[in-house]
Automatic annotation (TrEMBL):
The keyword Cytoplasm does not apply. NCBIfam families: sss (TIGR00813). GO terms for molecular function: organic acid:sodium symporter activity. GO terms for biological process: propanoate transmembrane transport. This is Solute carrier family 5 member 8. It comes from Takifugu rubripes (Japanese pufferfish). It is a multi-pass membrane protein. Keywords: Cell membrane, Ion transport, Membrane, Sodium, Sodium transport, Transmembrane, Transmembrane helix, Transport. Belongs to the sodium:solute symporter (SSF) (TC 2.A.21) family. Pfam families: SSF (PF00474). Signal peptide: none annotated. Gene3D superfamilies: Sodium/glucose cotransporter. It comes from the Eukaryota.
Length: 512
């Protein structure tokens, strides 16, 4: 019988080494491209890689850009609490790539524009372009700050890793290689960070499968626990995660990201031909599907391990996003370096998203807010570097603000969808409705923004009742409370003798 403290874990030296290597490699890519492109750097090289990139690195960068730490931490927790029907996001991915490839890509690529919002001035008016740019900047700064802070908080509370040290170091490294190397550095660091994300997922999955006695027991546990709830075709739009809300709602969300978001569009228009750009989207689709399957199966592993003693209900973690880090520190603590690999995977998700955002923010600021009103062409390269540096600092500052928002974090994340929806409608109107004019476009954008704000903010004040959210059952029947107030978790896994886990004192969780 073996007993250990299963509360908040701590990093070993090997874990810090793995994490540091990930940051150093990312920074080194920026240094390399700054040196390789010395003497021939132009604004086109910085913003679009000189339009000479090929499909494979661009596709991997597209995959990494919005597969943030939210994917690494929240998707498995979502499966653990609500079931595996989020796998139907795969349907929305397929539809999104077809729509983007056939509707949005040809327009942006053939116009040879650098900022997507240039299209709004060409199609409608300069006022429409400016409003679209400002909305994009607001949503991106809000979202990026939270992408930096939220995973840092979850990982800090479970692993003991220094919160602000991680926030500032990742923010500074992102800013450094974006400023030094431009889009090519961002793309190639995304390729590296995507491989780290996959390695982190696979380390958890492989160890879970080994501990639980194979893939079949994990699937069986998930089925018995109601987690394989795929066939829910309820048409009620208020229900959480049915086939229709995920596949159709997800299509609109991902179309606003891949179809019109500057961070994504800037990548595929940097390809050397339109056929390479289309190929990058479809290779990216395979990457999205693979990461989705990994995150869903990781959630099934999470449930299989804790099906008799839920750490969240028992008060061992204070938020669902901490469940995956808790599992990592639990099952990988005897393998120095692997917890560090998973944390590096989570932060790689953050780095890829933040670097994409910084590069996109610098692009739209210079191209949409400065270039039309100034003739300082010789200064544009310096302005781009300054803008990238400024937005890096702003995003780190937004992470600090996010730490003060508490329960409003979810509302701030919703801003991404609230603003992205009306912008998607605006671009779609311009492309498929030749009779639309600038007055109608501005009116539609503003009215759509007001309506989506009303719905989004109202959802925060009036959350859906449990009958609509339908969280699945979790139990602590395998946990035994001792008289000292400590939790003793007794668990038997296939091929192993019974082990006792003594953990931190239980505290009540209001959400449960």
């Amino acid at each position: 019988m073996k007993t250990w403290d299963a509360g908040v874990g701590s990093f070993a030296a090997a874990d810090y080494v793995v994490f540091a290597v990930m940051l150093l490699v990312s920074a080194a890519v920026g240094v390399y491209y700054a040196w390789a492109d010395r003497g021939q750097r132009s604004s086109s090289d910085f913003l679009t890689g000189g339009r000479r990139l090929t499909a494979l690195p661009v596709s991997l960068s597209l995959t990494a850009s919005f597969m943030s730490a939210i994917t690494v931490l929240s998707n498995p927790a979502e499966v653990y609490r609500y079931g595996a029907n989020i796998v139907f996001y795969g349907v929305s991915y397929v539809i999104t790539m077809v729509v983007t490839s056939e509707v949005f890509l040809p327009v942006f690529y053939r116009l040879a524009i650098t900022s997507t919002y240039e299209y709004l001035e060409l199609r409608f008016s300069r006022a429409t372009r400016l409003l679209g740019t400002v909305l994009f900047i607001v949503q991106t700064i809000l979202y990026t700050g939270i992408v930096i802070y939220a995973p840092a908080l979850a990982l800090n509370q479970v692993t003991g890793m220094d919160l602000w040290g991680a926030v500032i170091s990742t923010g500074l490294v992102c800013t450094f290689y974006c400023t030094m190397g431009g889009l090519r550095a961002v793309v190639w660091t995304d390729v590296f960070q995507l491989s780290v994300m996959l390695a982190g997922f696979l380390s958890v999955i492989i160890r879970s499968v080994d501990q639980q006695g194979g893939v079949i027991p994990i699937i069986s546990d998930s089925e018995q626990g109601g987690r394989l709830n795929f066939w829910d075709f309820d048409p009620n739009p208020l229900r959480r995660h049915t086939f229709w809300t995920i596949s159709i709602g997800g299509t609109f969300v991902w179309s606003s990201i891949y179809g019109i978001n500057q961070a994504q569009v800037q990548r595929y228009i940097s390809c050397k031909s339109i056929s390479q750009a289309r190929l990058s989207l479809y290779i990216n689709l395979l990457g999205l599907l693979f990461i989705l399957l990994c995150s869903v199966f990781a959630g099934m592993c999470l449930y299989s391990v804790y099906k008799h003693c839920d750490p969240w209900t028992a008060g061992l973690v204070s938020a669902p996003d901490q469940l995956m880090p808790y599992l990592v520190m639990d099952i990988l603590r005897d393998y120095p370096g692997l917890p560090g690999l998973f944390v590096a995977a989570a932060y790689s998700g953050s780095l890829s998203t933040v670097s994409s955002s910084i590069n996109a923010l610098a692009t739209v600021t210079v191209e949409d807010l400065l270039r039309p009103y100034t003739s300082m062409n010789n200064w544009f390269s310096a302005l781009l570097l300054f803008a990238a540096l400024l937005y890096g600092v702003l995003c780190i500052g937004m992470a600090g603000l996010a730490s003060l928002l508490g329960g409003i974090l979810q509302a701030a994340i919703s801003i991404f969808g609230i603003i992205g929806g009306p912008l998607l409608g605006l671009f779609t109107l311009g492309i498929i409705c030749p009779f639309a004019n600038s007055k109608g476009a501005l009116t539609g954008l503003l009215s759509g923004l007001v309506l989506s704000l009303w719905v989004g903010i109202g959802a925060q004040f009036y959350p859906p009742p449990p009958v609509m959210a339908r969280p699945l059952s979790l139990t602590t029947e395998g946990c035994n409370l001792s008289t000292a107030g400590n939790l003793t978790w007794t668990s038997t896994t296939p091929g192993q003798t019974q082990m006792s886990f003594t953990t931190v004192p239980v505290h009540n969780n209001g959400d449960t």
